[in-house]
Amino acid sequence: MKNNESQNRCDMIRDLLPLYQDNVCSEGSRVFVEDHLKSCPDCRSELARLKNTCFEDRLTDETKEVLGNHAKMEKRRTATVGMITAGVLMIPLIICLICNLVSGDGLDWFYIVLTSLMVFASITVLPMLVPRKKILWTLCGFTASLLLLLFTINVYTHGTWFYLTAVSVILGLSVAGLPFAARQIPLPAGLRNQKSLLVMIWDTLWLFALIAACGFYTNGTDYWSVAVPITLVCTAAAWLIFICLRYIRVHPLIRAGMIAVFTGCFTAGINFFIYWILGESVQTYLLAQDWIYNLIIGMVIAGAGLILIALGIWRSLKSHSSSSTSSKANPS
Ligand SMILES: [Zn+2]
């Protein structure tokens, strides 16, 4: 047991140890510390601990620096490759520019080559040149350049189809790419947890825009009364599955079962609904051979769903009873 005086001395030495360790104390203090260390094992182990901590800190700093430098070097290298690829793409572009100028009165098909190369560059050069949010930038760049290419071809061929293809391209790329790119979109705090909901709303709006664009383009008389209800029912089915997956908080097996039951009923019934919308009679529906297959497939899926629901209920009851038993055994 240390007496008061030696404890005070140890405290004083501990205050001096960091300076001693960094070699920035006076000569007098250094001798004082060393004299004390010879006779005090506690302060010696404190000095050893200090040395270890310093070493670990230095190691962490150096590791961070090396990794940071490596990342910077990689970024620089990728950017250089991007620039070189962009440079290489300029060669066919210049050749086409000259050919188009020589062969015609002015530039026409050159713009198609230009926009095609922009589409190519958007998926090769662009990801290498942007420093972060690569998926989001690539998706935006690819969509924009593809729309520009379609617009150029539409003008070149005097077409009237641009809006139809534009909506299809936006819908298709949104469905395929937006779930990945959405993570990189900066959103206000309240919406940050609702990205999947926003993606669903965005896709639904573009789907209905496509249905409308097809209606205007084909100008069919019966189009709207058929296309709108069928699209509404199919979209509602997709929304129901989404809501079930995202918002219903039950055992995962029950959730999977609910989705399977719903998908089964949808598979079994959708064809009948479409026949009804098309104004066909029940006899026509029953005469078409495929309804029996849809019914069988639908029933199998729904049956599997019911089994999953039963399993889920059993599992959650079991975990509930075991947790209540353990809480009775260890009342806190
Ligand atoms: Zn001491």
UniProtKB/TrEMBL annotation:
- Membrane-spanning residues where? 81-103, 109-129, 136-156, 162-185, 197-218, 224-245, 257-279, 291-314
User: From which domain of life does this come?
Assistant: Bacteria
UniProt keyword terms in alphabetical order:
Membrane, Transmembrane, Transmembrane helix
The yes or no answer to whether the keyword Transmembrane is present is yes
Domain (Putative zinc-finger): give its ranges.
10-44
Q: Which family does it belong to?
A: Belongs to the zinc-associated anti-sigma factor (ZAS) superfamily. Anti-sigma-W factor family.
Q: By what name is this protein known?
A: Anti-sigma-W factor RsiW
